[in-house]
Amino acid sequence: MHFSRLCHLAGWPVAAAGLLLTAQSATAQQAAAQPELPQLSEVTVRSTLQESALEQTPASVTVLDGERMRERNLQVNLSESLSAAPGLQLQNRQNYAQDLQLSIRGFGARSTFGVRGIQIYVDGIPSTMPDGQGQTNNIDIASLERVEVLRGPYSALYGNASGGVINAYTERGEGAPSVQSSFALGSDGQKRLGLKAKGEANGIGYVLSASRFLTDGYRAQSAADKNLFNARIDVKPDEYSQLTLVANHVDIDAKDPGGIEPEKWVLNPKEVSGNAIKMNSRKSVKQTQTGLTYERQLDGSNALRLMAYAGQREMMQFQSILPNFQAGLKGGVIGLKRDYGGIDARWSGKYELGSGSLVLIAGLAANTVREDRQGYKNFVGNQLGVVGELVRDERNTLTSIDPYLQASWAFAPRWKLDAGLRWSNVQFQSRDHFLADKNDSGNAGFHKLLPVVSLQHELNQDINVYASLGRGMETPTFNEISYRPDLAGGLNFGLKPAVSTSAELGIKQGFNVAGLRGDWSAALFQTSTDDEIVVASNDNGRTSYQNAGKTRRRGMELSTSTWLMPQLRLNGALTLLDASLRSGYCDSKGQDCTPAGKRIAGTARHLGYLGLEWLPATDWRVGLDWRHVGRIAADDKNQVYAPSYNVASLSVGYTKRLGAWKLSAFARVDNLADKNYVGSVIVNEGNGRYYEPAPGRQWMAGTSLSYQF
User: Are the CB atoms for 401 and 364 separated by under 8 Å?
Assistant: First the structure.
């Protein structure tokens, strides 16, 4: 994509110019070091399997510090703090029954609930099932050490549905034991209570965190109650090995207000569909999981890592489908129970090769899910919003077995070649136990060889450039094969996986010049996809899918973190994305056609973020954030768009140490200008209720008190 075209797409010249001027100043002649400016901390990336310094990683990666994610935030949603990651479109639905809306470079944008097309890991445990469907509601921000957002070709090394990767890591318990209690409250009845203990005793490090979040919701039918527990325990059996145990439990009860029509949103952003109220749409989720990781240094060159995990998830969802529309559907209540688990065994070795070094990694990842799914009518006689007659009963099994290899060779001074290969195998099996309407059992399997290669060159001690190329696969999820386009019974096993080829050029630089110190990065990317999965039909809440032709996602990312003066830091991110159909397609009836050139639904062409952090005194911090999201296509034919918006937030934090005690307090105001905007869209919503409104001006405040023994 030509640079002039990118700037035209942005429609945002002021912010783009600011970021570009920062980048240009970094390429000027290096000035003498200015010790009065804070030193940049050294950041190590783990998401590329081989740990490396951030500036020497041949991929687009954003690393967010857990402590900074907690500062002056409610600590409930990733949307509070991930706006600084370029390429990531993360929208808060204001609906705890449906999770966040998350996409990376356009992948995952079509998801109407949960997260799909993106791999999510928490402490090495996948929060994404083998079919590519995942969630973020089990991530405990209160105990995070960091979050890494990996974008581009390198993410294909994680296998199926790797349009991008989000890796969350719990902090390790170290130092003297401490305990912390916290309380926060805000608009719309928001309340969060937290309790946390961490430290190290007798060689055992531990972090224990529990919280409860309550909200009345911005709209009617959007109240929620979320309870979360997270634990990590670290033990060193000997000087060569490390044992880590993690456990997590989440329990959510949430009402579901659904979306509203654009014309109703204009008149009343708090509007809720009468069906949602009448049918009392809601969802309850319980999930418990645990994982154990063993790492051992075998000798000076070889190391072994073994990880095993298991969990259980139960869900009951009451949809807003009226009784007279349920003929031919599999009910208005979904009952789901999943037992899941898996392993990841990995060997790594470091060797000298020629004048350089070689790192090899070989591993096997295996995951399995056994799902019991029932469907019920959501009425009994005239009583609505209750569990009624059973109309669906099946057992679904998902498995994936992926061997993988990775190599990194520093073959010459300032040159490094990275390559990886993963053989991704995903199997679907469904056994129908509800035989009143015939046997709808079936199975399907998908497999693909996913290669990645990257070349990196260090221009000097401050500048690294790289080029990478890779292929990825995205299978349909079980939700997407649940219905056939011809409206007949059975699962839609005719769906094929979408296959993508991605290329990326990037540059990273640290600088200390003209009174500024910081770093910046830029990336140009393009992804071409065959057999993109799109909507085939949408009938009264029953959505079926098909494979379309070709799509293309291309664009540019810029980001910077710069100390403008000793007490003032600027963080900025800019994303320009052109995601569109390269060939048209028609619905299952061949009547409603979408021509080539249309924008991929759910994507915005430009995203921007600017954040200023001011440290006026040792105990005080003040933050001012500004976020821009371009208009978002709500449907495949681009007949409806959610308007673009700009919102700003102001926050202040105070910390005081009194001996062994530490007191922290914060206050925050979001949407300072009290703007009316659409927080996210429900892509291709069959009733035209595309918009999920965002709240107006909101306030929150909180405090925490900790004691170190």
Answer: yes
